[in-house]
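Researcher: Next entry in the queue.
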Amino acid sequence: MPEAGLGKRGVNYKVYCFLIISSYFKLRLITTFKTMYLKVFLWSNRVLFALYIAFISLIIMSKLTFGKGLGDVYILIILVLSALLFALFGPIWHKHYTLQAQILTFCIFGFLFIFFLYLASIGRGAENLWNGRLFSS
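Model: Structure for this entry, 137 residues:
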């Protein structure tokens, strides 16, 4: 006579069903976290793009300067080109991009934006030295 809980072949079906159910929920949990992180980085990229646009508009309105005189125009051109690349190739508007593409885009353009912030603050040129303020009055 077989033991209680064992089937014909000696498999404990309670343990077997538990393993199947737990692996299903584990896979579902991983998928849930992956979609959550995908949404987080999608919105992070959108916010970063909005910061690029705000940065460009502040430079055009002469509220933000790099302290390099006419050299500010070259930095502005590079900033506009990087914003265009971000808009064209970055996964801002597309939800079918993978999580790795979202993270890579956020890291590349995030570091580039931090570099532009450095140039506008501590790394200013000789024409308008850093005085502790980010905006010009």
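Model: The chain has three helices and no strands.
Researcher: Noted, moving on.
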